[in-house]
Amino acid sequence: MYAQLVKSEGTSREEMSPEEIAFQERIDRNEKIEPKEWMPEGYRKTLIRQIGQHAHSEIVGQLPEGNWITRAPTLERKQILLAKVQDEAGHGLYLYCAAETLGVSRDELLERLHSGDMKYSSIFNYPTLTWADMGAVGWLVDGAAIMNQVPLQRTSYGPYSRAMIRICKEESFHQRQGYAIMMKMANGTPAQKKMAQDALNRLWYPSLMMFGPSDKDSVHSAQSMAWKIKMNTNDELRQKFVDQTVPQAEYLGLTVPDPDLKWNEEKGGYDFTEPDWDEFYQVLKGNGPCNKERLGARVKAWEDGAWYREAMTAHAKKKAARRSAVAAE
Ligand code: BYC
């Protein structure tokens, strides 16, 4: 058990305060940590970073799909896509609320997103060029999100874990709607099948990048796993995702764009080519195909909404003043 008490910076158990040791023992017993309880500052900060980044991803993640609402091929598809994009807004809200319980305001989180100080998932810096991308996003991007989020339902911080339970229920619907689009396209005309294959070709490696850098380059994994903020390493989840997704691609009659993909009997999983990590770090630095467009759209939405936030605040103040006037009568 105490093997887990080693911090990623290299601090050993001997260097921990009695409070830190007691805290770690609660984590090891799988107790949930609740907002007002004592927690190490690093635990609080790591949670704000991860939950905040996750919330931002949900909100920015609306943009590539929102782009296709007006161009959905049927009314039914339009309704489904609208509902999905609306769900992402809800997920963002649950997560911002969970982050707020750690003593950070939503305005501050958004300010840090807009200034480029906080990240959102790299995947949303890639464009969605055709309707088949709506299928591939649901199938691969939501599929990767679920793979990462199902274990997070058991994460040690109570509000985060409870938000995850609700989010995962909706994500599985999202993944299935994406796969349903892929089925239609892959079994459609040769041109539709080609679009489906092209979407898979473009989104495969960016989806693998969603799990983060390989374990040897992951900065936060060791400490986050000791604190059960993360339940698996990045590579473990990436492997599970590949193993789950390859048979789904085969069922669609599509080819995963990796000539070296091969079942490895010994490890009971596929050997596969790693994403281009230089590209990943370039996207993180703001140099991906859509970084400027995505952040620009968020900042514009925030600025355009200023009058609405002011009106709501003024309305809330008036209501509160009226209530206290009535109470004073
Ligand atoms: N994109 O030490 P590491 C969704 C950063 S799905 C951007 O391994 P960690 C949705 C990382 O922040 C997506 N940045 O980090 C789906 C760190 O930089 P900082 C959201 C990334 O945190 C469909 C550095 O690289 N899901 O929302 O231990 C529709 C070193 O990495 C990425 C979540 O956020 C990336 N892909 O592990 C709509 C799940 N990967 O912060 C919406 C919760 C790494 O030190 N998050 N970085 O500057 C996690 O599980 C973990 O934060 C990660 C990264 C596995 C993503």
From TrEMBL:
Per the record, its GO cellular-component terms are: cytosol
Q: What name does this protein carry? A: Ring-1,2-phenylacetyl-CoA epoxidase subunit PaaA
The alphabetized list of GO BP terms reads:
phenylacetate catabolic process
- Which parts pass through the membrane? none
Entries under InterPro entries matching the protein: Aromatic_CoA_ox/epox, Ferritin-like, Ferritin-like_SF, PaaA, PaaA_PaaC
Task: Cite the GO molecular-function annotations of the record.
Answer: phenylacetyl-CoA 1,2-epoxidase activity
